[in-house]
Amino acid sequence: MSADVAARRGIPDASVARLPGYLQALTNLAERGISSVSSEELAAAAGVSSAKLRKDLSHLGSYGVRGVGYEVDRLAYEISTALGLTQDWPVAIVGMGNLGRALAAYSGFATRGFNVVALLDHDDSLVGTSVGKRRVRPMADLDALVREDRLAIGVIATPADSAQDVADRLVAAGVRSILNFAPCVLDVPVDVMVRKVDMSTELQILAFHEQRRTGELDLAEQSVVGEVAL
Amino acid sequence: MSADVAARRGIPDASVARLPGYLQALTNLAERGISSVSSEELAAAAGVSSAKLRKDLSHLGSYGVRGVGYEVDRLAYEISTALGLTQDWPVAIVGMGNLGRALAAYSGFATRGFNVVALLDHDDSLVGTSVGKRRVRPMADLDALVREDRLAIGVIATPADSAQDVADRLVAAGVRSILNFAPCVLDVPVDVMVRKVDMSTELQILAFHEQRRTGELDLAEQSVVGEVAL
DNA sequence: ATCTGTGAAGTCCTTCACAGCC
DNA sequence: GGCTGTGAAGGACTTCACAGAT
Fold first, then answer.
1. Three-class SS of residue B13?
2. Nucleotide nearest B67 (Cα, C1')
3. Chain B partners of A99 at a C-beta cutoff of 8 Å?
4. 3-class DSSP state of A196
5. Where are the domains of chain A?
6. Model pLDDT for residues B11-42, shown as the tens digit of each residue
């Protein structure tokens, strides 16, 4: 039983963050008709080390066979279960600007355990218009969505100015998981989980490494110059 | 001098990843006319602990005043310098589907040190069409972009099937920093840096925590039922 | 008196390396 | 022989708590 508790409660955050990658790699393997895989192969497909992969999987239980490897379908099922993807999670996207419309059109949701039940916008002139096959609904529908559609996850795709207001409304309606695409920090109660996606941040991290690389080349050139001067 | 080396080389990855958030918070403060800030206040604005903030900033140098705090403009400048944002980095976006077009329209690039110099697509029927004020260019333009525009960063916004091919072309043209929005692992040389943004992964992480929460409620209900039964 | 900058301690995560099992 | 699962070692990051500066 203590092992069970460990398997259910004790998965480190860093491991959880990698499980979707393993699941995706397993799905690819399954599509290519491969039914068995070693930790070395799966790790390569997911872009991690095999030791890390095995340690991560050990937190879920013992689903491999020593001397053989893992059965692809079985492992995919176990990871799906651990992530809670055996059920479909209802998702609402708030903010129908360029990004919101791109997200609404993204086909990856349905295939990965999510169901976009509503597109919302604060702007009355957008409400009622169509995005793909869906109609844009007003923010006032949030309460009903949580009650009737068991809406659990909200995606914020608004500009930064509106994001906190949208978050407040989501929380008030009972949503406790938020994916935030707006470039700002959200203030929410402790029991609400927020994850942030920010492409400017990612580009700035890349810029840091680019600059460091360039700086090193400059230093190398300088030292060559120095040697010539001597 | 050894302090200089530490400041240039030794910034931990975890710190670098938070610097953009500090920069954003500082920009907000500056816009609101605030010229001085304590580590406690800035940390709250950026959503981290003050100890973490101070430790992060200590890797850049000593730009605060004990007993007083940090000057907003000065600190923003120092962080910009550390991140390499005193110059504008030329960026190309590859893949003009829904996501690529949303990225092309995103105004946050220009204001944060980046310059979108080209929109590219592999599909000949898209090449030549306009996205915003820009014309979509063919992949064959990549070499010229790297040579003439000093293109340094490539953004991949294609479907997963094409992403590896696009990455190969970017690398062949000399791009060594890639931001990948496609849900797949890219195989690149070790000196090429890839960062990945994947909304499905983020949603799955949220689902894990939602499920864990629900699971706990179920257990709580069970134990209540148990007590009632006893 | 106040707030920064930082060694030291503590926590979390990764890697190693091998026992255990097929 | 080959591969998984895992304690133990190692490394990275965070938090503590206080010396040092104004």
1. helix
2. C3
3. 102, 106
4. strand
5. 2-83, 89-197, 201-230
6. 999 999 999 999 999 999 999 999 999 999 99
Name the band, by pLDDT with cuts 50, 70 and 90, for residue A220: low
Distance CA(A221)–CA(A217), nearest Å, equals: 6
Residue by residue, DSSP assigns A24-59 as HHHHHHHHTT--EE-HHHHHHHHTS-HHHHHHHHHT
Contacts of B103 in chain A (CB under 8 A): 199
| DSSP class of B154 | E
Q: What was the pLDDT predicted at A216?
A: 65
Task: Kindly report the number of other CB atoms within 10 A of residue A216's CB atom.
Answer: 12
* Separation in Å, CA of A130 to nearest CA in chain B: 16
CATH number, domain B89-197, options 3.30.9.10, 3.40.50.720, 3.80.30.20, 3.90.380.10: 3.40.50.720
> Given an 8 Å threshold on Cβ–Cβ distance, is B153 in contact with A203?
yes
User: pLDDT tens for residues B113-124?
Assistant: 999 999 999 999
3-state SS, residue B128: coil
Non-local (6+) Cβ contacts of B148 within 8 A are none
On the question of a common fold for B2-82 and B89-197, the answer reads: no
What pLDDT score does B110 carry? 87
Gap between the terminal Cα atoms of chain A: 73
Residue type, B86: T
User: Beta-carbon neighbour count of residue A57 at 10 Å?
Assistant: 23
Q: Give the residue-averaged pLDDT of B2-19.
A: 73
Nearest to A193 among B184, B198, B206 (CB): B206
Q: How many residues does chain A have?
A: 230
Is B155:B179 a contact under the CB 8 Å cutoff?
yes
The whole-angstrom separation of Cα A169 and Cα A173 is 6
